[in-house]
Amino acid sequence: MTKILGGWSQSLTLNPFDEFDTMMYGMVTNLDGLTTGTAAYPGWSPEREPKPSASPTFNGKTLWSYGGGLCSPEQKPANAEDVSRIVAATINKNWDGVDFDDECNMNIPLIIEAMRQLKQNNKETSYGFPAGWWYNHPETSGGKKISETVQAFAASGQCDRLVHYCYANAMWDESLIRDNVRQSLQRSISNGMEKSRIILALTTNGLTDWNLNYFIDQIIDLDVGGLFIWRYDEISRDHLKMIKQRLGK
After folding, report:
1. CATH architecture of the domain formed by 4-247
2. DSSP classification of residue 127
3. Which positions ≥6 away from 214 have C-beta within 8 Å?
4. How confident is the model at residue 54 (pLDDT cuts 50, 70, 90)?
């Protein structure tokens, strides 16, 4: 058994672990300007920055992340021009794909269209979302909308990986984890997503032996795709060893 392993960095100079299959750089939160930072204080842009050169021992794919915490404005991409910019930046600067991090009510039909065009150019795609209480309560308007979004991605066939953010600024407490993590993964399976495309994500902030093992248990037991790590550069040696051993890396 070998599972997908990946992580995010906000620094273009930070190298991925050799064991990573997917490395993501961001976060491109200024969606009008297609830069990190904000419109008033923009950072780097995938339209100008080429895919970083990784070490010779890294054999994975390198994506840039569209969105993230405090991304704005909502309902992006807004039109065909926005979609074209996303695709052109990826192709022109040799990125391997785009990771859509939906934390600002994005335009799902146009994300799927961007994914379609990216896939036509042999690029990879992923979509990530907070997968907690709302997702697990589809009887609410918010929960219903998230479930419909996942169903749309599953039906489209354009999303290589559906990434479940099961943490906040730090790892959730035990009750939130027990009430939501496994249930979110099961819900995505029920919503039609292939198991191999389902990714569980965690943060190293507040990571313990217990919660790490719990997350890995769900990946193995439900036989989903793998694990992504926020702030992977801060993971302890013992926790990285545990991940590698249990996920076959």
Report:
1. Alpha-Beta Barrel (3.20)
2. E
3. 177, 178, 181
4. confident
